[in-house]
Structure formats: C-alpha cells, structure tokens
Amino acid sequence: MPAMSLRLRGAVFIAMAMFVLGLVAAAGGLILNARHAALAESEAQVTRFSAGAEAALNRALLGLDVLLASTDDMIDLWRVREPRPDPAFVGQLLRNAARQNILVRTVVLLDARRTVVASSDAIGARVPTELPTGFFDEVMSQSVPTLALSAPTVSFASSERVLYAARPIRSEDGERLVAVLQVPVSMLVAVLAQGADIPGLEVTFERGRGDLIIGSSSRGEARGRARVSPLGDDTAATSAWGQPARLSGVPALVVARPILYPGLWVSSSLPEAAALARWRVERNAIVAVAALLAATVLAAGGFAMAYLGRMNRARNDIARSKATLEQALGSIVSGFVLLDPRYRVLQWNRRFEEIFPWLKDMMVVGLPFRDVLEATVRYHLPEADEAGRREWVEQRLLQQRNPRGTHEQMLPNGHFIQITERSTPEGGLMITYHDVTELRRASAEIESLAFYDLLTGLPNRRLLLDRLHQALATAQRSRQFGALLFLDLDHFKTLNDTQGHEVGDMLLQQVAVRLRGCVRAADTVARLGGDEFVVMLCDLSHDRDEAASLARRIGEKILHAIAQPYQLHQQVHHNTCSIGATVFGDARQTAADLLKQADIAMYQVKAQRGNALCFFDPQMQVVISQRAQLESDLQAAIAANQFVLYYQPQFSRSGKVIGAEGLLRWQHPERGLLSPGHFIAVAEESELIVPIGQWVLRTACAQLAAWSRDPRLAHVHIAVNVSARQFRHPDFVASVVDALNHAGVRPHLLELELTESLVLDNVDDSVAKMHLLRTKGVRFSVDDFGTGYSSLAYLTRLPLHQLKIDQSFVRNLGARPTDDVIVQTIIGMARNLELEVIAEGVETEDQRAFLERYGCDLFQGYLFARPMPVEELQTQYGDRAGGAAA
Questions:
Q1: Which of 239, 519, 634, 793 could in theory staple to 523 by disulfide, Cβ–Cβ 3.0 to 4.6 A?
Q2: Contact call for residues 691 and 635 (beta carbons, < 8 A)
Q3: In 10 A of CB 258, how many CB atoms?
Q4: Are strands 212-217 and 566-568 parallel, antiparallel or unpaired?
Q5: pLDDT in tens, 766-798
Q6: DSSP code for 880
C-alpha cells in the first residue's frame, strides 16, 4: 500500500505540473491570437471606412464641380434676355442651383477685377474679401478649367469655418469669369466622417504636398494645424501599421487613398493603442482565468493527496462490507436486484435467478435493465408481435422512473410475483421480487366462497347487493337509468320433486349460462338461491321510457332463451320463467326496495300463469304496452301497405318546380293520417325502419317512372330521406339499384338525403357506398346541413350534389344575427365546392328575399307549397315544372 500511494502521489505532482505548463502555453497562444485578430479586424474596419469616405467625398466634390460648371448655361440664359441683361435674373438662377446641393451656402460670379457680377444671395457681396490670399489668382491662372479648393477660413457673415470651391468660366464677350461657391467645413466633415463610430479614428482631407484641408478626430475638428507630412503625387493607395498618425503623430494604422481630383487625398489613421483597447481587456481576462485555473489545479492536487490516503483506508472497509452483503443477500427468500442511477445492474441474488431462470446466463454487472426486460417479455408475451413487446418494455421502464411502491406480475407458469421498487439515495433503484402465489390462491378461494354461488358460479346475494349499491350511486351521478330483472323459473319445484335435485341442479347451471349470454359483459347476473335469479342492467339510457323499453327487450330475449329445450341426461325438458322488472336511477332507492319491487312484479306475472314480463310501475307498464302496440301496428301497416308518400315541391328562383321531397305518412285505420314524428322513433328502435325505407325507395322510383311519361314532369326529381339503420344495412346499395332497375327510371332523378351525423359516423364506409351509387347516376344531398359538426376535409371527399340548409336557421333569418352569418357561410361554402344549395322551411317573403340575395339556388317551404298527395301536386304544379334552377 505505501509503495502504491507514493506512485500515485508522484503521478499527481507530474499531472499538476503538466497541466500548469499547458495552461500557460495555451493562455499565451490565446493572447497572441487575440492580438492578431484585433489588429486584423481594425485594419478591415478602417479600410472599409476609407473606401466609403473616398466615395462620399468624390460624390460631394463632383456635385460642386457640376454646379460650378453649369454656370456657363446660366450665362447663355442671361445672353438671350432682352433688351438688356439682368443680374437679378442670373442671381435667381444661381439661387435655384444652390438649393439643389445641401453642401452649398452661397454661389457668386466674379469678373477679373473681383467684382461681383451675380450672386445667389446678399452674402455673396462679401465673398471677394473673404477669399484666402492668392486663391482667386490661382483660379484665374488655370489654363484648363478645373475645380479648385481653398484652405479653410472664417466667414465674417456667419462666423463659421468655410472653404471655397471655384472654377473659371467664359463670359458672353469672351472675358474670363470665376464661379465661386461657399461650403461650410462642418458639412464636409459630416460627409467625410459618414457617422462612423470607430474609437480613436483620425480622418483627414489633404493635398499631396502636405496642405491639410480638413482634419477630424474623436476630439473634434483639427483647426490648429495647416500642414501634415506630404503624401506626394503618387496615385496609389497606401495602408500600413506603425506609421505616425496624420494628426496626433502616434504609431498607428494609416490608410491613404487619392480621390477623383488630382493632388487630393483622404487618409484614415487608427492609433495602435485604440485598436488594441478591447484586446487588452481580453488579455487581462485570460490571464485572470488562467491564474484561477492554476490555483484550482493546485488546490485539487492537495485535496487529491488527502483523498488518496482516505481511499486506501476505505478500500479495505468496502471489501469487508461487500462480503457481508453477499452473504446476507444469498440468505433472503425474495429475489433482489440493485440498479445504478443509469438503470444498469449492480447486484442481484440467487433467489432472483430461481424466480427468472431464463435470465441466469445473461446477468452480468453493468447490464442495462432494458435488456433484462426485453429478455423477459419473450417469456411473458410469447405470441405478441414486436410492437406489443416493445410497448410492454416501455411501460415497465416508465413505471420504474416513477416508482409507486408495490405491484404484482403473473408469470407464464402461473406464479404471482409481488414487485417492490424503491429509489436509492444515489438515484438508483432497488427491486425485490416476492412469490405470493399461495397467498393469492387462498385469497381467491376465500372470495369465491364469500361472493359467488358454488353451483352456477354466478355472484350471490351478497355480491349482488354490493354491486347494486354502487350502481344506484353511479346512476344518481350520471343520470343514466338502469333496470333490475327478478327471474323465477316456472314449475321448478315439480322438476325437483319428480326428477331429483341432481337434475334440478343441471337445469340451474344451464339457465345460468343462457342468462349470461343474453346480457352485456358489464351487466350482472346473480343467483339469490333456489330457482331465483336477478339480472342488473346498468347505463341503459338518459330517458326513463327508453330505458324501460330496452329492459323489456332484454327481458323478452331472456324469456325466449329460457324457453328453448334443455338436455337433462337423456331427457329433453322445456321450461319457462316469470320476470318482474323495475327501473332505477330517478330517485333515491335502496337495493332492498328495488329487489322487493321486482319481486312483486314477478309475482304479478306468476298470477297470470307465468312466462311473461311485468314492470312494477303500472304507468310505465302502460307506456311500454303502448310502444309494443305501436310496434305491432307498424308491422301490420307494412303488411297491409298502409303507408303513403306525400310530396313537397322544390322551387327554383324563377318559380319553376324542379323537384319534390317524398315525405312518409301512415294512414292508420283508427288514428287517421300520422306524420313520421308519431312512429319513426319506434321504427328505428325495432329496426322496422329498414323495410319501411325500402318501401319509400320503391314507391319514389315508381312515381318517377310514372312522371317520365308526362312531358311536364319528366325532368322533376324526387328526394328521399335515408335513415342511419337503412344506410348502414349491408344490402343498402343493392336495394337502391334494384328499385331503380325495377322501375326503369333515370338514376339522376333520384336524390338521397343523408344527415351530417350519418355520413360522418363512418366516413370510409359512407364514401364507398356513395361512390358506388354515384357511378350509377344517383345524386346525394346533405340534409339539415349546419346542425352537425361537419369537417370540410370530409365534405370534399363526399360525392355530393346539394346542401340543404336546415329550417332552424331559415326560421330565424333577420331575427338572430348568428343564423344570418351561418346561412351566408353555408351558401358561400357550397358555391366554392360547386354544390347546389336548397333552403327548407321557407315560410315568409323576407326569408326568401334574404336567401336569394345571398345566392341560394332552390327553395322549399310553406311559402311555396305544403306537402300534398301526388295527384294534387300534378294538378296544381304540373304546368310549372322545369328541368333546372333558373
């Protein structure tokens, strides 16, 4: 141990020294690179600025030169004026020209004697006296006219520094004149500086021979010096570090560029101190960070030395503790797995391998627990696909990330394993596996004895009462009605007495099987004892009458199932039962009260010789009897052909009848003519709507065939409503095609009206059926459009011809703004989808005018015509029929 500790200490010292040396080298290199980068960035910045300054000054001087040269044209204008030249006229021309250039303050024309010939303003009279000495003679002596610039001087008129630009021109009599303009130095300084923000930058406008025209720095304009070191007459731009700055003379980067006019230069000087200002801050920061890191390394080295000593002592303690832990883990009866914070296996015991023998050969330290789960799922779900197995693994991993104590898992061999997961202080996971198979089997047996009937396996009275209490509480919250059916076998005592209890038990077992087959999985079938059974039906409907009707149907289904023959040993036996029923959910009732009510109703059936069903509430019995009678009457009406079709015409804008909607009526032998509202709900529930719908289709097609022989009505179509049950029937398409073929009519004259909810209930099935019929020529309309929750994505998939605006919106036109907007939206959407629009329920002229104003094509309602027999339609509207909307 001492030798190893010495080697480690030496390694720590060497590492510290190498790190500090490397840190110093890295810091030095970083500082040098930062300095080079700062100089390069500054040079690029100054070069870009110099190019911009050169371009700006060239534009400014060129503008001045053009203005001076244009005075020739002003002289020409002066010459053509009659009878005598007017200096005021030329002054006006000069004033207009001066206003075109924001740099120019004053423009004057001087003759050879320095007399003002014309001036743009009154200040021009002072210009001859303010011109620098020798400047006028220099301009007059030019052999080739060119722009000349003076040195800056102070204007007596404005007390500001100005310079003059001049150019010789010719007069009308050949005498040489001088055009002079005054420019404020501050304006040229602004052009030269361009608003640049480069700390320490010095900018000069100078002559090559060393005359300083304008100088500007961060301290302002340089007014106290007139000369700088000459740049010479070389026309090549220069750029170099280490040159004296043009104004301050300190070492700097100097970029000098000649401008458009010979002998004139623009120079930019950036002192090295200014260029490296930000670099010095970075250098100091690098040095500070390097020093801090070096101190940290030295401190860490000191701690490492102390730690090495403690680590040697702890190593022996850990080895002893590990041996003790392995002995303890091997002796516990539960499986054990310890995972690190990354959910990799750290430790496990022999019992874990006994519980999961398929993992024995793959368990190693560091194995990801995901691999353990992926190996396990192949035994847990041998028939599952890869997606199912992957989902199982992800759920187990999610459960581990949020451990919630104890849960159970059943192994393929039938054993129940209780799994407990607890987080460790280090962020890992400790999992224990305890085999609780025997405990669960004992619990299941106790529960079966306590809550289930031994003979039939059905829930007994105790479990029934518990579930009934829960069902009553749930019904109060959800306002869903349920029902309780009390069932007693007829003449069971006679069977027991004559054939023996063994045969009676066989009958009870078979009855239990049949009862379970008559109800849903969520319902409860219980045996109270003897031959008494109870069926509890939950969540039947929000409507009490409908719940009672559904309970009656299930009861009748049970009566029919119980009445089927039984095979008892070698003997066929027939048996019936009596059923008492009661509905629960609308008032506070106890389970005992419900059982009593159903029992009383059952004995009422017994009093009437059994094999029937009776409800406890007499009034409800009346309602159910009426619905049953109505269903029976409907069946008779279908057989006796008591239905008729009324037709409500559909009109175009021009008033032509272009179609009619077929509306079902029932000519009841006792109650007279009934509208669909009196019987359609019962027809839907009893599925009689399918044969009724087929009759409507056949009748409508037969009427179309009859109209095809009448030239007035040959183009009139008939719209027929299709119910959801009828549309979903497997033979719906075939029944429509058969009706069309049997009548021999053109399919496009038949229009099927479907509701939004019907179409969107199963879009793929709806689209398939509609396309099949559309290829035959049948047209489709969406009835009651706007009352559902249509999706435009689905609407565009449907082969529609027409949208029908629901009468609930039409009724409120002009009275409810939201309905106005909805109707306008429906019409606009239909036009975009190239669909016809028909409004139903039009009852007033204002409604018709509103609809027509927003582009509605067709109309239907009492304003135009009520539903009527076909003979009346043919008589009243036959001459107004037409083939298309006008």
A1: 519
A2: no
A3: 19
A4: unpaired
A5: 889 999 999 999 999 988 776 655 556 667 788
A6: G
The residues facing 38 across adjacent strands are: none
C-alpha closest to that of 683 among 718, 632, 737: 632
Give 328-350 as a 3 state SS string.
HHHHCCCEEEEECCCCEEEEECH
In one-letter notation, the amino acid at residue 479 is: R
Which among 322, 369, 366, 323 has a CA at the least distance from the CA of 346? 366
Q: Please state, as a whole number, how many other Cβ atoms lie within 10 Å of the Cβ of residue 160.
A: 11
Contact 164, 135 (CB under 8 A): yes
Q: What is the pLDDT of residue 83?
A: 47
State which amino acid sits at residue 67. Answer: L
- Where does 417-460 have alpha helices with state H? 437-451
CA distance 620 to 583: 9
Which residues are paired to 204 by β-bridges?
Answer: 215, 267
Q: Can you state the angle between helices 185-193 and 2-69, rounded to 10 degrees?
A: 140
Which residue's structure tokens are 């939206």? 825
Tell me 122's DSSP state. Answer: G
Question: pLDDT digit string (tens) for 196-218?
Answer: 778 888 888 888 787 888 888 76
Q: Which residue has the higher pLDDT, 816 or 438?
A: 816
DSSP output for 509-539: HHHHHHHHHHS-TTSEEEEEETTEEEEEEEE
Look at strands 405-410 and 251-258 and give their pairing: unpaired
Q: What's the rounded Cα separation, in Å, for the pair 356 and 524?
A: 39
Q: Does position 864 have pLDDT exceeding 80, yes or no?
A: yes
Identify the H or E element spanning 838: strand 836-840
Per the CB < 8 A criterion, the answer to whether 809 and 770 are in contact is: no
Q: Is the pLDDT of residue 676 over 70?
A: yes
As a whole number, the mean pLDDT across the chain is 83
DSSP summary character for residue 231: -
**3-state SS of the chain: helix, strand, coil percent to 5?**
50, 25, 25
In tens, the pLDDT along 405-438 reads: 677 777 777 677 778 888 888 878 888 888 777 7
Q: What are phi and psi of 220, to 5 degrees?
A: 115, -165
Cβ–Cβ under 8 Å, residues 110 and 117: yes
Tokens of 260: 């458009």
Cis peptide before 412, with omega less than 30 degrees from 0?
A: no
Specify the pTM. 0.41
> Residue 886: what pLDDT?
36
User: At 119, phi and psi to the nearest 5?
Assistant: -145, 150
Give dist(CA 368, CA 734) in Å, integer. 61
The runs of H, that is alpha helices, within 144-242 are 185-193
d(CA 515, CA 508): 10
Per-residue model confidence (pLDDT) at position 885: 41
Structure tokens at 95: 């004033």
> Letter for the amino acid at 313?
R
Residue 857 has a pLDDT of 87
Cα end-to-end distance, the chain, whole Å: 109
Q: How far apart are alpha carbons 54 and 239 in whole angstroms?
A: 14
For the chain, what percent of residues have pLDDT higher than 70? Answer: 89
* Residues 387-400: tens digit of each pLDDT: 888 888 888 888 77
Q: Is residue 464 a contact partner of residue 526, using CB atoms and an 8 Å limit?
A: yes
